[in-house]
Amino acid sequence: MVRPLSLVAGVALMLGCQSPALVRSARTLPAGGDDLSLSVTLTRVSLRPVEVDGRSLPLQDFNLPNPIPDVLYDHGLTDDVQLGARLSLGSGLIEARSMLRVVHAAQGRLHVALAPAAGYRVLALVNGPVFSVPLIVTYDLSPNMSLTGGPLVSFASYSVPRALDEAEPDLGGSTLYAGGGLGIELRPAFGLHVMPALEVQRSVWRGGRVQELPVVDMIFFGLTFGWGSRAPSP
């Protein structure tokens, strides 16, 4: 029999590695420009009830703070393409990031970009690759403020050593998440920027030995701030 507390502990361990994808706007850096940012996150996790001995047992929601800021660096290859990296010591993740702006319209106020990323995480007993593909849409409300949002998908593969107690669940496997987010980027002056954001993700598919885990809903409350080279506003 799978123990509910074991499920919660296992989900908490794995979700400690899950990171939000909406940490930037679709406003790409100018060619040769650089951006260095820090990002902090609080995650609210909700679990669907599980079946135990034929009964539906509700599981308590919980919070996962990440007080250690993620470090993000990006470099503009062209005015529409940039590459970068993210180091998240709190979630054991190192990630290569990219952004390709595919739409730049409405007198330069509308930006649409794909931002695929690929990384690897090692946190406690959990390790494995993670991939995410957000579609980011940004509209400049003013020269110093932009509204950003869009959908995303994220795929994570977990490798967890088998518990010594055979009654404990084996939590290795893969999970596909889907969701979206919304944020506001403020650019006060001198290349400084700050973006509070709200993002939701839900587990929509599982493969391997994690299929017994309940559906997971996550709400990320994030704040990204930093300095970067920005193209002049139209």
Account of the 3D structure:
With 234 residues, the protein is mostly beta strands. It has one domain: Beta Barrel (Porin). 5% of the residues lie in helices and 61% in strands. It has 1 helix and 13 strands, in the order H-E-E-E-E-E-E-E-E-E-E-E-E-E. The strands form 2 sheets. Strands 1, 4, 5, 6, 7, 8, 9, 10, 11, 12 and 13 form an 11-stranded antiparallel β-sheet that branches. A hairpin with a 4-residue loop joins strand 4 and strand 5. The chain starts with a helix and ends in a 6-residue tail after the last strand. The model has no long low-confidence stretch (mean pLDDT 85).
What is the compact description of this entry?
By secondary structure, the chain is mostly beta strands.
Structural class: mainly beta
The description of the largest β-sheet is: 11 strands, antiparallel
Strand content: over 45%
Please bin the fraction of helical residues. Answer: under 10%
Report the span from N to C terminus.
Answer: 62 Å
Average pLDDT taken over every residue: 85
Classify the fold: give the CATH topology. Porin
Q: Please tally the β strands and state the result.
A: 13
